[in-house]
């Protein structure tokens, strides 16, 4: 059985709470904001595009603008939290997220909306790694921390469920603007309660921030996510795609060179000697690719092929999210009995099986007979995989680098999501085009493309299981 070592926390530097489980619930509420935003916006995209006059191709930038800022700034956000205080940076990120959500809801042009989405992503890049760092500080004991991560994973499932359901209800009744406004009261609750539950950070910054490293890695990540997103929108060999990829490689290389010479690096490269952390981030990269592509495809498939409205689409995704919530709560017991890696491998195999099953859904699918079963299996696999991967990603991390670990795992998820949406979305589009060229009716052609996408996500889950199985333990 894998032994999970708690993070080392320097005496007197970690935020503390006498009501840590209540504090966890509020931290999880902030994580709920980030998860909710992703799923709730997907449901609203078709209506949003019609009302603001955004075509289908440009509509992808509503997602991409958020992902670019979020994925590009996560490592910097995590390191800022380590330097200037996890609670302080968490509250700044939460306030920014609530304010920019309100700005997005007030948007009257596509340009205003895209700017607000980018600012939302930047705020989330401060919020997410700081929240995970606070969790690891509050729960140093391995058993309690595993239970806390189970709650964390369950909240992610609740966020997905609430997102698809609220997205449908709010879009149908109050308009697309309400899917952004809903973040504001939740953010206010978090901002009021966290200072009452978690003590202040130690005053003052620790050391000097690695500005050259921060600039190069942020630029490299933004360029990489932009290149991946551009693949789907303009093609693999388009000058924009190739140019962004080249910039990402150059800046990434410069970042590694800077980190090797800097006395106080933004990302100490030695952190990757922690094999559990490395495996956790690789699996999160692959898992993010599968999850983002899956949820995007499901929303489009149900609305464009099956003819469901936004509300019905939200309701049909509840079984998946419900299964995820239940299994996330049970995952800590499985980790304690079987070990983290065995639990993760089993979860990934279950996830792959559900995705293969879903790939056989026809163009005239009936929800109860064709979609419900695979949705539940997928939720079971995702619930176990999410909790266990997060556990590995923060396993044994020093207290002064917990924000960095949170930034790394969230960065892996975002980069993986952009990669999955770009590559698997392109595969689906090419398959659909081939079928249309062969004279296949549009609904069947689109279904054929989605079948390839679902099968591709299953392959990604299998690869993640193989990586987990063959990687050596610490």
Automatic annotation (TrEMBL):
The keyword Transcription regulation does not apply. Keywords: Cell membrane, Membrane, Transmembrane, Transmembrane helix, Transport. Signal peptide: none annotated. CDD domains: MFS_MMR_MDR_like (cd17321). PANTHER family: BLR6921 PROTEIN, MAJOR FACILITATOR SUPERFAMILY MULTIDRUG TRANSPORTER MFSC. It is found in: Cell membrane. Its main location: membrane. One of its GO terms (molecular function) is transmembrane transporter activity. Residues 23-474 form the Major facilitator superfamily (MFS) profile domain. InterPro entries: MFS, MFS_dom, MFS_trans_sf. It comes from the Bacteria. This is MFS transporter. It comes from Microbacterium imperiale. Gene3D superfamilies: MFS general substrate transporter like domains, Multidrug resistance protein D. The chain crosses the membrane at residues 21-45, 57-77, 89-108, 114-139, 151-174, 180-199, 211-231, 237-258, 279-302, 314-336, 343-360, 366-387, 408-430, 450-471. GO terms for cellular component: plasma membrane. It is a multi-pass membrane protein.
């Amino acid at each position: 059985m894998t032994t999970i070592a708690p993070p080392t926390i320097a005496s007197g530097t970690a935020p503390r709470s006498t009501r840590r489980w209540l504090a966890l619930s509020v931290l999880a509420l902030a994580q709920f904001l980030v998860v909710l935003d992703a799923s709730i916006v997907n449901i609203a995209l078709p209506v949003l595009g019609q009302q603001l006059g955004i075509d289908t191709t440009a509509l992808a930038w509503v997602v991409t603008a958020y992902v670019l800022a979020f994925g590009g700034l996560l490592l910097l956000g995590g390191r800022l939290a380590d330097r200037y205080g996890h609670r302080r940076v968490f509250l700044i990120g939460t306030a920014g997220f609530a304010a920019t959500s309100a700005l997005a809801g007030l948007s009257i042009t596509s340009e205003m909306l895209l700017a607000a989405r980018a600012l939302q992503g930047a705020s989330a890049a401060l919020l997410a790694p700081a929240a995970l760092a606070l969790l690891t500080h509050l729960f140093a004991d391995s058993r309690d921390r595993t239970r806390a991560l189970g709650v964390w994973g369950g909240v992610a499932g609740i966020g997905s469920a609430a997102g698809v359901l609220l997205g449908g209800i709010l879009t149908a009744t109050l308009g697309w603007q309400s899917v952004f406004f809903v973040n504001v009261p939740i953010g206010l609750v978090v901002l009021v309660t966290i200072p009452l539950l978690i003590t202040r950070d130690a005053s003052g910054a620790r050391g000097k921030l690695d500005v050259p490293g921060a600039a190069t890695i942020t630029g490299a990540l933004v360029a990489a996510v932009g290149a991946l997103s551009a693949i789907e929108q303009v093609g693999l060999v388009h000058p924009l795609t190739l140019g962004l990829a080249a910039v990402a490689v150059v800046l990434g290389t410069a970042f590694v060179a800077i980190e090797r010479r800097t006395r106080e690096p933004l990302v100490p490269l030695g952190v990757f000697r922690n094999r559990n952390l490395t495996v956790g981030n690789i699996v999160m990269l692959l898992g993010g690719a599968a999850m983002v592509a899956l949820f995007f495809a499901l929303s489009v498939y149900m609305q464009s092929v099956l003819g469901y409205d936004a509300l019905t689409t939200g309701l049909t995704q509840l079984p998946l999210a419900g299964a995820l919530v239940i299994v996330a709560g049970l995952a800590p017991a499985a980790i304690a009995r079987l070990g983290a890696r065995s639990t993760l491998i089993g979860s990934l195999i279950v996830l792959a099986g559900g995705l293969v099953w879903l790939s056989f859904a026809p163009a005239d699918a009936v929800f109860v007979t064709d979609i419900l079963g695979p949705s539940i299996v997928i939720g079971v696999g995702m619930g176990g995989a999410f909790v266990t991967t997060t556990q590995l990603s923060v396993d044994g991390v020093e207290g002064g680098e917990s924000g960095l670990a949170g930034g790394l795992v969230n960065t892996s998820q975002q980069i993986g999501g952009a990669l999955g949406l770009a590559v698997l979305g392109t595969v689906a589009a090419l398959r659909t085009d081939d079928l249309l060229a062969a004279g296949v009716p549009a609904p069947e052609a689109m279904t054929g493309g989605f079948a390839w996408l679902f099968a591709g996500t299953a392959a990604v889950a299998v690869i993640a299981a193989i990586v987990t199985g063959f990687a050596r333990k610490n």
